[in-house]
Amino acid sequence: MRPFYPGGDYERFDYSGGAVVVDNPPFSILSKICTFYRTEQIPFFLFAPYLTIFSSTSRNGAHMIVTDSTIEYANGAQVNTSFVTSFGDDLIRTAPDLANAIDETVKRVRKEQRRHPPKYAYPRELLTVSRLGKIGRQVEFCVKASDVAFTRALDSQKAVKKAIYGGGYLLSEAKAAELKAAELKAAELKAAEGVTVWPLSDSEKRIIENLA
Predict the structure, then answer these.
(1) At 16, phi and psi to the nearest 5?
(2) What is the pLDDT of residues 87-127, one digit of tens each?
(3) CA torsion, points 38, 43, 48, 53, in degrees to nearest 10?
(4) DSSP conformational letter for 86
(5) Residue 52: CB atoms within 10 Å
(6) Chain-centroid distance, C-alpha 152
(7) Among 18, 19, 97, 198, which one is most buried in terms of CB atoms within 10 A?
């Protein structure tokens, strides 16, 4: 079971049916959490802070597994992590197999993320900072408050717990068309940067006029 989620209450969570807790709890109350699970005889295997694992769990009888694994969490923070559990007989132990398995998994995931980064396509009616960043050196684009409405996530994203990084603005149809035109103009100007243009002379223009 994973009772630690925004708005959740681990003390009132339903642990019936032989539940085992495997989760990443708030480190700030880890000692309290371990005490609660041991008192209620609920088996657990929890993420824990590496450097302070002794001080946060040693007084409540939780067994400590020291791995010093660098784990990147959903908010982007990279934290050196170990684990505490109700399983086993040793108060403190290392676990080479676990530590190495985590390291290999982290390496594989990072390699896959570099090779296959997620790609998203937003509707043209959504204005994001990155869209403006791509045209800001070539064209000027302005938006009035009446043209837009702020949103943190599209409804289609909320269904899969995704959001617009940094938020965005829904654009009016007219403003969306104006932005699209600005993007096309910026692309043309950018493509022309550093290109030497050889103009036609007046005599060449007169030859062209007489053709056909």
Answers:
(1) -70, 165
(2) 998 888 999 999 999 999 989 888 887 777 677 889 999 99
(3) 40
(4) S
(5) 12
(6) 14
(7) 19
DSSP line for 95-154: -HHHHHHHHHHHHHHHHHHHHS-------TTEE-HHHHHHHTTT------GGGEEEESS-
Q: How far is CA 163 from CA 6, 74, 145, 147, 150, in A?
A: 16, 13, 22, 22, 13
List, in sequence order, every residue forming a beta bridge with 46; answer none if it has no partner. 23, 84
Rounding to the nearest 10 degrees, give the CA dihedral for residues 94, 98, 101, 102.
Answer: -80
d(CA 208, CA 212): 8
Place of tokens 């702020």: 150
- The whole-angstrom separation of Cα 6 and Cα 12 is 14
If one counts every other C-beta atom within 10 angstroms of the C-beta of residue 99, the result is 16
- Tokens describing residue 147: 């043209």
What's the CA gap between 23 and 196, in Å, rounded? 60
For residue 87, give both structure tokens: 């399983």
Q: For 117-155, give one letter per residue: b (16+ CB within 10 A) or e.
A: eeeeeeeebbbbeebeeebeebbebeeeeebbeeeeebe
Q: pTM for this one?
A: 0.55
Task: Give the separation between CA 66 and CA 81, rounded to whole angstroms.
Answer: 8
Question: E strands within the chain?
Answer: 21-23, 44-49, 63-72, 78-85, 92-94, 126-127, 148-151, 168-171
